[in-house]
Design a protein that fits this description.
Number of strands: 22
CATH topology of the domain at 199-417: Phosphoenolpyruvate Carboxykinase, domain 3
Radius of gyration: 25 Å
Structural class: alpha+beta
Subcellular location: Nucleus
GO cellular component, one term: nucleus
Largest sheet: 6 strands, antiparallel
Helix content: 10-25%
EC number: 2.4.2.-
Number of helices: 8
Distance between the termini: 35 Å
Strand content: 25-35%
GO molecular function: NAD+ poly-ADP-ribosyltransferase activity; NAD+-protein mono-ADP-ribosyltransferase activity
Order of helices and strands: EEHEEEEEEHEEEEHEHEHHEHEHEEEEEE
CATH architecture of the domain at 199-417: Alpha-Beta Complex
Enzyme class: transferase
């Protein structure tokens, strides 16, 4: 029987790397974990790329994957067994090891490794209920060989070395799994200290990053450089410690699970020409509405696209004139979605196995159910045009915009499917 235990190789790299140890603009690369490959020729352990570590750690913490594919830029490919951490073929590298912090919160109060225990039922891994879960985690922490517990009148014995659970009366045996809980960098960021006096950016401190405010001034993230002469826009990577990164990822993962996709980077898009057009339209639309209605004027919505369309969108905005490439069920305009999972269907994987999605500012205003023949919103009862079209009037999930002044490509999310191979040198 295959042993389904995912531990580490004994070294605990960062128990002393708490917030007080973090120097300005320096973040420990191994806050909770690190993955390394062993070169077979001399036995030297070599670190893999930062993004590859996030990808592999996510897979390592998953209950659904036991074998994963690793690739490098030279075209080499390996299969890694996550339970035994061996590589095949093994001519160049023969093993992978995972180094992690301890789970002792007294030694590392900010970044202790969190673990979970699962039992297998019909091919699915289910979390043990309390207090059994807590008892098993404590037994693993103490290094015990076995642990017995009683549940619903049945006595069970768990072998903590072979990771099997046996019903003492019937002898029925099932597998269990002991693996860590994945925590992406942005979840750890609030515990990091990035320097004296440094504060995290948040929607309350960056005008316009809350869609309910009425800001229509200059581009709010003033620290992002203006576009160089001869170019239209600047892409600036958002740090995981920024509140904007957290809110973007939280919204993104609301419908795209963290065990399915991995966010690699979030970028702010600064295009002063498009921003001025957008703010002018926002001001115009807001002035004709009561103050209470203005708070519902703008929404942050997703738009998935191909890699080849990212630059044109950043330069010239979403273009309603090219509607029809991905359907026009609710009108001939630019489509935006409340859920990232819907927009993901249009974010095609590129040659580098990456996907791209915008989190856009959209002036939805007054909406009405759309129609494929619409080239603009229809007239409302008051004789004025609606501002946008939707799929459903009561609880819309899709919005269609017919005027490019009503949208702005605010954030760009670069991500990949966890089912894609791990690029070890990324």
């Amino acid at each position: 029987m295959q042993v389904a235990h995912r531990g580490h190789d004994g070294r605990e790299p960062c128990d002393s790397a708490g917030p007080a140890k973090q120097k300005q603009k320096q973040v420990c690369k191994h806050i909770t974990h690190a993955e390394e490959m062993r070169r077979k020729a001399d036995g030297v352990w070599l670190s893999i790329g930062t993004l590859a570590q996030q990808h592999l750690e996510n897979l390592y913490c998953s209950t659904s994957r036991h074998d994963v594919q690793l690739v490098d830029k030279a075209g080499s490919s390996w299969t890694l067994n996550l339970n035994f951490m061996d590589l095949k073929p093994s001519q160049l590298y023969d093993r992978v090891r995972r180094l992690s912090n301890s789970s002792d919160s007294s030694r590392n109060p900010y970044f202790p490794m969190e673990w979970q225990v699962y039992w297998e039922e019909c091919g699915e891994w289910l979390v043990y209920e309390e207090p059994v879960r807590w008892e098993l985690l404590a037994a693993f922490e103490k290094g015990m060989w076995n642990h017995a517990f009683k549940l619903r009148g049945q006595l069970y014995n768990v072998d903590l070395k072979t990771l099997t659970q046996r019903n003492v009366r019937t002898g029925f045996t099932r597998r269990i799994l002991h693996c860590p809980v994945f925590r992406p960098p942005w979840r750890l960021a609030p515990h990091l200290r990035t320097g004296p006096g440094t504060t995290l950016s948040s929607p309350s401190t960056v005008p316009g990053e809350d869609p309910q405010d009425t800001y229509w001034g200059p581009y709010p993230a003033s620290w992002v450089p203006k576009a160089p002469v001869g170019t239209m826009y600047t892409l600036a990577e958002v740090a995981p410690a920024e509140r904007a990164y957290e809110t973007t990822c939280t919204l993104f993962h609301k419908t795209l699970a963290e065990d399915k996709v991995l966010v690699l980077a979030v970028y702010r898009v600064r295009n002063d020409y498009l921003w001025q057009k957008y703010c002018g339209q926002k001001k115009f639309m807001a002035q004709s509405r009561p103050r209470a209605v203005r708070r519902c004027l703008e929404r942050h919505l997703f738009h998935g696209t191909r890699a080849s369309k990212v630059q044109p969108i950043c330069e010239m905005n979403f273009d309603p004139r090219v509607s029809g490439e991905n359907g026009e069920a609710y009108g001939q305009g630019s489509y935006f979605a409340v859920d990232a999972s819907y927009s993901h269907t249009y974010a095609k994987v590129d040659e580098a196995s990456l996907c791209h999605m915008f989190l856009a500012k959209v002036l939805v205003g007054r909406s009405v159910r759309g129609n494929p023949v619409f080239r603009r919103p229809p007239l409302a009862h008051d004789g004025c045009l609606y501002d946008s079209c939707t799929d459903y009037a009561k609880k819309p999930q899709i919005f269609v915009i017919f005027d490019s002044c009503q949208c702005y490509p605010y954030f760009l999310i670069r991500y990949k499917l966890l089912s894609e191979p791990v690029a070890v040198d990324s």
